[in-house]
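Table S5 (text form). Sequence records supplied for joint modeling of the two-component complex.
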Amino acid sequence: MQGYHIGGKQMKVHIKYYAKYVEYAGAKIEDLEVERMSISDLLEVLKDRHPRLKEEKMSIVALNGRFGNEKTLISDGDTISVFPPVSGG
Amino acid sequence: MDFDRYLSQVAVPEVFPSGQKAIKSSSVVVVGVGGTGSTMAEMMVRMGVGRITIVDDDIVESSNLNRQAMYRESDIGLKKVDVAKSELLKINSDVEVEALDERLTIYNAEDIISYGKLTLDGTDNYSARGAINESSFRLKKPWVFTAVEGTFGYAKAIIPGKTSCLSCFGYPQKGEGVSCTIQGVIPSAVRAVSSLAITLAMKILLGKEESGDLIYLDVWKPMLETLPIPRNDDCTVCGRKGAD
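The corresponding structure-token record, covering 333 residues in total, follows.
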């Protein structure tokens, strides 16, 4: 498990990647140890780990199976699902 | 109305007994008749919608033929809306078909959406969807969002005043995106997402869709997930702190 220690209380979260994000992240699922932070801050952590995520305009993020507002704080044991945007039709 | 042709769908409990009448009395607008749009238009006409307006300013190209409904080799170079209108009338002559040789923009979106009770998104770019989203909210008309790429895609019902909208979850409201020809898409993903969208459309027309969940579908895995998206009070389009 990868850790991101900045000084706050650490928590374990599960990240699930979808569609082309699996290729970008090199895995369907990864577990991270991070301090308590917002979803938007967590996305920045993920972009640092997997720079190709920066190629997309935005990501659709679910927190424990529901859409998660970017200001929402994550908690220990949360599952965060990250979906790419799509424009084709 | 020739009910015989609709017997199989009327027999479905979710449609029986009055659903066919509701479909027949409905009007829909299909914006973009490419991969998803042409498929959705064909299904709506086969199902017996009363009136359909198709909107597109493109011509048929050879790169369309692997996935777009109704078009043939002999149609290459012709206007998509002209070919589609002709084919739709051959499928069901009871349906009123109107063809608009236009590209939807923020400037004409309200006029176009006003043609129908429900709008189906067959577009291929963020700006058009943003325009549909804003205009539909202003007109209080429901619409169905679709988008596909590679092996996966999304569908979502958007009902002003009831469900979240496209802007509620941060979907880009401007920009061209990347075309299917460049990004790649497999035909089965297009058809599967279109089928989900038409089911949502039926439910809206029959008054049975309330959720507005985002449906994610990947035909390759295969997998399907529904992602509840609550209304966002801070949404710049439909937020309760704003226009609603």
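Note: The mean pLDDT of chain A is 90.
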